[in-house]
TrEMBL record:
Transmembrane segments: none annotated. InterPro entries: Hexapep, Transf_Hexapept/Carb_Anhydrase, Trimer_LpxA-like_sf. SUPFAM superfamilies: Trimeric LpxA-like enzymes. This is Carnitine operon protein CaiE. Pfam families: Hexapep (PF00132). It comes from the Archaea. PANTHER family: DYNACTIN SUBUNIT P25 (PTHR13061), GAMMA CARBONIC ANHYDRASE-LIKE 1, MITOCHONDRIAL-RELATED (PTHR13061:SF29).
Amino acid sequence: MPLLEYKNKKPQIDPSAWVSPNATLVGDIKIGPNSVIWPGVFMRAEYAPISIGQYVTIFDGVMMFTRSDKSPIDIGNYTIIETGTCIFGTFMTDYITIGENVLVNERSSIGEGAVIIAESTIASGMIVAERAIMKGNPASVIREQSRNDLLKQKERAEHYTEMFIRMRRKLPNLQPYAITENALLRELITIKERE
């Protein structure tokens, strides 16, 4: 995987995290414990740091850029960021789901347990309340999540990490970046049957 130094700072990846060989990370980036970075992810910490918490899954094709020293990217724990999302500078707390092809603009803040529906845009400077479900361009609140929904988000985030931990342990020669999620699930079922 390309881990590129920029301004004397190089990505730091926790040993328990998994970063696809097809992802590119540039500059002052920290990937926390048990986080998973899928193929085609591109992170560029050019002007400010990018920090990823624990049990975070960032799916394929996600892009993150810091375009200003006032706009770092800080992703909290148990967060899932789905395919094709672009993040330019934000602070996210924990248990957040960002749907496919979402645009998150600079200086935004996303509260605990919020869900951003696919194809939505978080405007520059927008503050998203805790547990809000947001949709649209610009995004607005359509309803609120329950506390129980928040716990399900934690379980879902842990599930994605556990898939990769099992795969790495049981199938050391498998190249996870070369298979689909369905194929991965089939492999995991096979592993369970062997145990």
